[in-house]
Amino acid sequence: MNDFPPGAPDLEPEHKRRHLAQLLAQKRAAITLSTSALMQHRSLFPALANKTYLNFGGQGPLPQPALEALYHAYQEIQQRGPFSGATAAWMTQQLSHVRTRIATELGASPDTITLTENVSVGCNIALWGLDWQAGDHLLLSDCEYPGVLAAVAELQRRFQIEVSTCPLAATLNEGDPVAVVSAHLKPHTRLVVLSHIFWNTGQVLPLADIIAACHAYTAARRPIRVLVDAAQSVGVLPLNLTDLAADFYAFTGHKWWCGPEGVGGLYVRPEAQADLHPTFISWRGLVGAQLESFPDGRRFEIGTSAYPLQVGLATALDIHAQWGTPQERYHRIQALAGYLWRGLTGLPLTCLQTQAPQAGLVTFSTGSAPLRLVQFLEAKGLQVRVIPQPACVRVCVHYLTLTTEIDHLLEGIQQFYQQ
Questions:
Q1: Span 85-123, pLDDT tens digits
Q2: Per residue in 177-226, pLDDT tens?
Q3: Which residues contact 335 (CB under 8 A, 6 or more apart)?
Q4: Contact 19, 10 (CB under 8 A)
Q5: Which residues contact 331 (CB under 8 A, 6 or more apart)?
Q6: How far apart are alpha carbons 125 and 123 in whole angstroms?
């Protein structure tokens, strides 16, 4: 909710400024109380030492213990022999561990988890694994990432499927996303593709309700499946994928989880598994010497990977757990995002969200030249990014973020406008 009382719009500007300053001081004090143990925890992340890093939605900083675990895993492989039974047994054990670690974090069973390289690979496994027929319908939102849009366009070209877009960008501050999606479903809808958190506006969709509406659509000729791009939700929201009931949930480890780049995953709901077939197939997805795929998430895994990266991700997850539970980490992210959002309302720019953000992505329009602002801030050691559509600046706050870093960002923005 907006923190100003009902009569706030009619207050004098000076009174508004004082009221906002008081609110910010209160919020800052509340958040700072929880940071005493955080300073030592942050020392595990070398990239946070010499800059104000606010690009977690692009790539998270790797904790030092994860980097060391990754290096030791490579050493272990060399000591055992890169291509040996001993190494194969060791890596099978490590991959089983990371699947279990990921599943625990996501509230899922390990056999529903496929290890991939990133979100794009996970989305493509789901997109290309369905048995598409000409005339099938695929529904997208108007806030999806370009990589997904390009893959869907190729599906449309090859299989002559129908693709349409539902206008969810307009529901950022008002409206009902569930009703909008429901209104765009058709009897021949096969798949709905949505992000849990939009990468460009930071909107958190009421995903459980949307999924329930898709699954309950009685006019469908066959079950409507839902593919979720979870690039910005895994590592931010506390999740229970079993309860959420998304059919396919594609995620990465290198953003909010702060794992190595090149590690991600795909959750496949057991009820949807029979609909999905491997597009790429290799020895890793097969049962022994038989040309049969594993019956679980391993069936979609292919080839020889950089397995030590998986060890690094499991270590990064352990590091986050040392600070708090997913729920505790989310509460801090939400509080920090709200603190930033309130500070931005006092500057000559426009926040895309008219209410405090539900997650760690805070976006705002500068009126013109957002790249100039981003470059100005980076010169001062403040790292944020430009979003092309809508043209805006995106700031990503993590539970690792400090209130002092947000204060420095607000000061930097103010200096930019005072040039």
A1: 999 999 999 999 999 999 999 999 999 999 999 999 999
A2: 999 999 999 999 999 999 999 999 999 999 999 999 999 999 989 999 99
A3: 27, 30, 31
A4: no
A5: none
A6: 5
